[in-house]
Amino acid sequence: MSNPHDPAMLAKAETLVDALPYMQRYAGRTFVVKYGGHAMGDPELASDFAEDVVLLKAVGINPVVVHGGGPQIGAMLKKAGIESQFIDGLRVTDKATAEVAEMVLSGAINKEIVGWISKAGGKAMGISGKDGKMVTARKVQRTKKDPDSLIEKVVDLGFVGEPDSIDISVIETISAAGMIPVIAPIAPGADGETYNVNADTMAGAIAAALGAARLFLLTDVHGVLDKQGNLLTDLRPADIEKLQQDGTISGGMIPKLETCVHAVEAGCEAAVVLDGRVSHAMLLEIFTQEGAGTLIRTGQTSK
Ligand SMILES: Nc1ncnc2c1ncn2[C@@H]1O[C@H](COP(=O)(O)OP(=O)(O)O)[C@@H](O)[C@H]1O
Ligand SMILES: CC(=O)N[C@@H](CCC(=O)OP(=O)(O)O)C(=O)O
């Protein structure tokens, strides 16, 4: 039997007692977790991630996992001898690329994550936007200024989509059955074609449609950093606009934060950018006063 006076046991108990108000606060609420392709490389972190979502489910929160797999799609395209190009962080997707993206995302990665969750003691159901007609995608339109004529020209990204409509009943049915939905960012268009959707965009749209309590974007930095490299812990949409204008945020962080702003303005309570390389970062964010990463919320949401 365990010794209740053992300091390690006491420390654990105190942590659980501290976490109790947060568990009560979020019981019955939904958390959407975006798990990116870069974070999947380390098996130990993958198993920690799976344990975290299983624990959330066990304490009465409904986790919904949306996954990426950009590097894995890139590796498979390379094997197949197909070249890949990105515009504004989006992979230009022709028919052959869409087929590979679906095979890697809906097939290999989706089932791998379902497997990790099963191994951690939970039950997961792996689907893509196609299943149960959950998501319909519309084609993404991008324009670019021609450097010579300065005229805006339409850039064709091929089969790159963004969610147009989402039927949340599919997700709710899986969650209500005690399972964790694991969603691949692939969706059909109204034209019946298969569209490749950026995983952050898919997660943000699902979090907004579900009115999620939190959208977690697990990435490879501690959160949003200022120019000195300090973590910015709490941001509003207006702050993000300033950070973009003064060049503090760049590259992949721009579309990521745009997704967060869109999600919190469209029904998700708050979004968090946090480090997927840190073991159990999500639990630290949820169950401690200090949190971890960067919280993004509108003026109406309290911390
Ligand atoms: N101000 C900033 N704070 C943190 N990261 C930033 C910032 N500006 C740009 N970045 C970049 O954004 C990257 C995260 O975006 P991205 O590479 O698209 O992530 P993921 O592949 O996890 O979706 C970081 O690795 C970092 O290089
Ligand atoms: C249109 C588009 O760019 N789709 C992404 C989908 C995967 C993804 O977003 O994966 P990460 O989150 O791991 O980057 C792609 O083809 O790479």
Structure characteristics:
303 residues, alpha/beta, Carbamate kinase, 8-stranded mixed β-sheet, 4-stranded mixed β-sheet, 9 helices, 23% strand, globular, binds adenosine-5'-diphosphate, binds N-acetyl-L-glutamyl 5-phosphate, cytoplasm, AcgluKinase_fam, ATP-binding, Asp/Glu/Uridylate_kinase, Glu/AcGlu_kinase
Give the SSE order as H and E letters. HEHEHEEHEEEEEHEEEHEEHHEHE
- CATH topology grouping of the domain at 27-83 and 100-126 and 164-185 and 197-284: Carbamate kinase
Kindly, what is the distance between the CA atoms of the first and last residues, rounded to a whole number of angstroms?
A: 39 Å
DSSP strand tally: 16
Helical content stands at 25-40%
Strand composition percent? 15-25%
